[in-house]
Amino acid sequence: MARKKTITLQKIADELDLTVHTVSKSLRGLPGMSEETRYEVLKLAQKWGYRTKEQERAYTVEKIPLYPLKSRRFILAIAKEQGYNSNVHPLLLEGLQERFSEFNYQIQTLIIPTDASANFPQWLEQHDVAYADGLFISPMMPANLEQVLLSLPMPKILLNFPPAGVRSDSMIWDVYDAIYQSIAHLYSYGHRKILYVGDIESHRGFRLRWQAFNEAMRNYSLDVNPQQHVIQKHTQQAAWTDDFSSKLLEQQPTAIVCSIEQYVPWIYYACGKLGKSIPQDYSLVTLENSQNSFLPEVTHPILAMKETGYRAADRMLWRLANPDRPFEHTRLQCQFYTGQTVVRIT
């Protein structure tokens, strides 16, 4: 990685065919260029290791070394049953790698099998976890494994909503805000009968989504009866389809909020079996994490997963430099994407 003293604003400007003035404003967050141009400037500056004076001052205040002499290795711990069935972890890893590449630090993934829980401390020892400089604990980690990981005597960042009293920093995208924005969007389009779809028990984040739905609905003076929503955990599509279809016919909603990505194709399938379609018969907002080419553009909050990885790396650097400071828990707000699956009720 090039040092700042060998990289100037002029070199960045020449590489991108921009003026020095545009590059300077981009790096300082000032207006006057497209977001695409700003992104390209920031990306190249990060790649080349260029930092503004403001960034250098911030590093100094936070006690983070600008040009560390020591090589570091970090671990992203992922539960095996989740690692191969989710696009969450690649996005988190991408964010972590992007940030750590500025310091030439390594981030490695550690896939933890379910059967490791029998003698988990010994399994961790065999994989040299204790010799890493820091640990990132991914979302949806089984509670028993998460508890052991949180007890390890090393810097840790929990990539999840923290349990009460946890002795670790945490960083996560804000699903509470995402659900709340979803209800606000549907309400602004005239929807008052909204069906919630999603498991509300398996993970802390799932429970928080349901809590957000209830509180958002109450904010708009809309009643919520849990028995009228599809909130039971189903692992088989046939059982889920029966539950969803019966609630759909009984409640006659005008809109659906799907809080779990895997249910999105099931919703389309079940509606098709009933001779219904989206959005002609039901509007749909979902917490889909990625664009699905087999489905139309779904209206959804944009969950800041890659950004969570990047900011988690930032928090790890800060924790290493400030080991005695109080633990902090950060949620990243989402943006909202207005797709093609919500229609206005007139």
Automatic annotation (TrEMBL):
Q: What is this protein called?
A: LacI family transcriptional regulator
Question: Per its UniProt record, what CDD domains does this chain match?
Answer: HTH_LacI
Origin organism lineage: Bacteria, Bacillati, Bacillota, Bacilli, Bacillales
Question: Which GO molecular function, any one, fits this protein according to its record?
Answer: transcription cis-regulatory region binding
Q: PANTHER family, from UniProt?
A: HTH-TYPE TRANSCRIPTIONAL REPRESSOR PURR-RELATED (PTHR30146:SF148), LACI-RELATED TRANSCRIPTIONAL REPRESSOR (PTHR30146)
Transcription: is it a keyword of this entry?
yes
Which InterPro entries does the record associate with it?
Answer: HTH_LacI, LacI/GalR-like_sensor, Lambda_DNA-bd_dom_sf, Peripla_BP_I
According to its UniProt entry, this protein's organism is Paenibacillus psychroresistens
Location of the Transcriptional regulator LacI/GalR-like sensor domain: 184-342
Keywords, A to Z, come to: DNA-binding, Repressor, Transcription, Transcription regulation
What SUPFAM superfamilies does this protein map onto?
lambda repressor-like DNA-binding domains (SSF47413), Periplasmic binding protein-like I (SSF53822)
Note one Pfam family from the annotation.
Peripla_BP_3
